[in-house]
């Protein structure tokens, strides 16, 4: 965990007021959280299936960045992305069992 | 004689220097205070006059005119008592070095017996004073430690009005308060009385909370009563990474403005964990009020805001959080003022899945109809939910796992 925060502190060293992934400004999400083509595809499907908003898209990327940081991985892998997506369970329309 | 002394007004988390001009001359004892003072500032004369009398200081039998500039900023509260008192003392030559008085920011509330009571916002005032090149800052002893965080400024904590007179006249020695924020910061150990290892099982939730804590993401825990939602959330601060010095300064500034630091406190070294009750009003949550005050979301800056039983909060209260959740600051605008408070917090919420609480429960049956469940869930608006990155269902711990855990714990000595 401390390692994950250290990675983040280093990443946001020169940025004022940003200390962790959740505070990442949206215009930098693309640079900081690059994903593979397969990842883009997965995210696209998820967005359609779960009816996710554009904000949710950014937020999923940020969470997957954190998961990757926790695993000390440079880039965001498929499993990181998948884990981040499954944490948005309340966006699923069928949540209340209908 | 004409003398200038300096005080400071705090707006939002920034301070603005206020010049207090005192002129004592002419015949006839009179007193006038101008420059947009509020009632508490106007009343200061009675406190000052009584404190003078009780400390054998002379009230000049002359025309006293006090002007507070800039005149367009409203001066509030009783913290200018000492600024004005020092001005009068210097202008009536009871303090012999008038030019020395102008090199300091002097602030504090006077008590009738001449003792000095604590003020709010000492840290932002000290930061501003250092920026503007003041030599020092004289303030109540209780606030000296928090102001001493600022380097390159002599900070003197005083207890009595006579200390100030003695200090300037050279017969009373004041020791400058010195604080080394780095050392203070390093010394603060994580002494929590709860621990994450108290939680039995719940591995998937621990994992989700670890991710949330590592990246500062918002998280909501949903589950039946007794599943351990609150227990898990309360232990979140124990796994949060320690604050950086920069973060600690930001948070301390807000707590200083709110007057929530306590006596002799210096740096807020732990991430704040705020858990307001669900009867909280919207102003209390985001900040505001007649004299603008930071709300719970700002007090939780760089820390955690924990909202237990999310659907029980008033809808308006929850909706006011939407913009600060996105912008990480909140702008409070009223007819008379507009202030910005930083509010970069991690939202942790917990809720039951339905009014009876047992929807989706592995053993117990839920007695709520589908409409009732839907209605309960719709208390949390879509836009708010959209801003929460991690949603996680907490299922109750099965007794079996619990005991198994206990046995392994016995076997493995910690």
List keywords for this structure.
A: 98 residues, mainly alpha, 58% helix, globular, B: 414 residues, Ribosomal Protein S5, domain 2, Rossmann fold, 5-stranded parallel sheet
How would you sum up this structure in a few lines?
The complex is a heterodimer of chains A (98) and B (414). The radius of gyration of chain A is 14 Å and the shape is globular. Chain A is 58% helix and 0% strand.
Structural class of chain B: alpha/beta
Share of residues in strands of chain A:
under 5%
Residue-averaged pLDDT of chain B, rounded? Answer: 88
Biggest chain-to-chain interface with counts: A-B, 34 and 37 residues
Shape of chain A from CA axes? globular
CATH architecture of the largest domain in chain B: 3-Layer(aba) Sandwich
Oligomer class = heterodimer
Helix content bin of chain A: 55-70%
Radius of gyration of chain A: 14 Å
CATH class of the largest domain in chain B: Alpha Beta
Distance between the termini of chain B: 74 Å
The major pleated sheet of chain A works out as: none
Show unreliable segments of chain B.
none
> Mean pLDDT of chain A, rounded to whole units?
80
Name the strands of the widest sheet of chain B in spatial order: 11-14-17-10-18
Question: Hey, roughly how much beta strand do the residues of chain B contain?
Answer: 15-25%
| Count of helical stretches of chain B | 19
Structural class of chain A: mainly alpha
